[in-house]
Amino acid sequence: MLPSQILFGLAILAFIALVVVEKLKPYRHFTNKIKKESFVTNTTAFLFNNIILTVLRATSLFFVAQQFSSHGLLSGMGNHPVKWILAFLLYDLAIYAWHVASHKYEFLWRFHKVHHSDKSFNTSTGFRFHVIDLFFEILYKCAFVVIIGVDAYLVLVMESVQSFFIFFHHSNITFNNEKRLSEFIITPYLHRTHHSTLRSEHDSNYGIVLAFWDKLFGSRKDLVPKKIGLDILAAENFLQLFFLAFITERTIKKLFQMIPKGRKL
To answer: Which whole-number Å values give the CA distances from 203 to 137, 151, 160, 218, in the listed order?
Structure first.
């Protein structure tokens, strides 16, 4: 079995397990309409492009790691646990930085906001990404692999861990001692804030696996959002989801400004 197929299989198993758990004991109750729209749109996005990109990501990262593992910053270290831990920490930090950039820079945000357009919050939200957002992330990760220089199989392990956490912290579940666990890793409790409608709230909690980075860089927020999704922009099916990236908040504001205002009484 190819490494990319193993990665894909592990991700699907994690997805199914979390869907079952949140179905049996959901943390937050959404209307049936919102839940159905969310699940159908997210899984359609996955079937349309994420299968191709998931395989491409795993294959490209594996190939790049095979070619350049002896050239990066960690290439001089022996293949032992210290190197594995350092590689994982640097990888998690790199993805944290990419996530921050996706919120801070308008060009990246126009694609990343597709992920935030879900009015629900469930495991399938982990599938809700624009194809261009995913493509840029693949290029970024390939650059990371070249710079750091890690073994190809370690790259696949890190990708598998990341995939699991993406599904896990988007799941609509809660459990005992979740807040205590969130001091160390990203949980649904923490990531739910990241999907708040309010920009002042969703520009926070950028971590994927470790909670340490948000603490270190002051981007952590502990609160329960009142509403999930985007305030102005929404997408109810896959086509709307795809074209949402090409409609910016600035464009909408300009359109609103063109509408004549009513006379004041």
So the answer is: 19, 33, 26, 11
Please tell me the total count of domains within the chain: 1
Q: What are phi and psi of 182, to 5 degrees?
A: -70, -5
Tell me: the pLDDT tens digits for 103-131? 999 999 999 998 998 888 888 888 888 88
Q: Which two tokens stand for residue 160?
A: 């598998």
Domain assignment of residue 265, yes or no: no
Note whether residue 125 is domain-resident: yes
> What's the start-to-end Cα distance of the chain, in Å?
73
Neighbour-count burial for 78-113, b at 16+ CB within 10 Å, e otherwise: eeeeebbeebbebbbbbbbebbbbbbeeeebbbbbb
Sign of CA dihedral 197, 198, 199, 202: negative
Q: Within a 10 A sphere around the Cβ of 49, how many other Cβ atoms?
A: 20
Which residues are CB-neighbours of 33 under 8 A, at least 6 positions away?
A: none
Q: Read off the pLDDT of residues 132-145 as tens digits, 9 standing for 90 and up.
A: 898 899 889 888 88
Rounded Cα distance, 74 and 204, in Å: 30
Q: Which of 205, 173, 204 is nearest to 188 (CA)?
A: 173
**Do residues 168 and 22 make contact, with C-beta atoms less than 8 angstroms apart?**
no
Instruction: Tell me if 175 sits within 8 A of 102, measured CB to CB.
Output: no
Residue 264 lies in a domain: no
Residue 263 within a domain: no
pTM: 0.79
Question: Residue 160: how many CB atoms within 10 A of its CB?
Answer: 19
- For 183, the domain range is 3-257
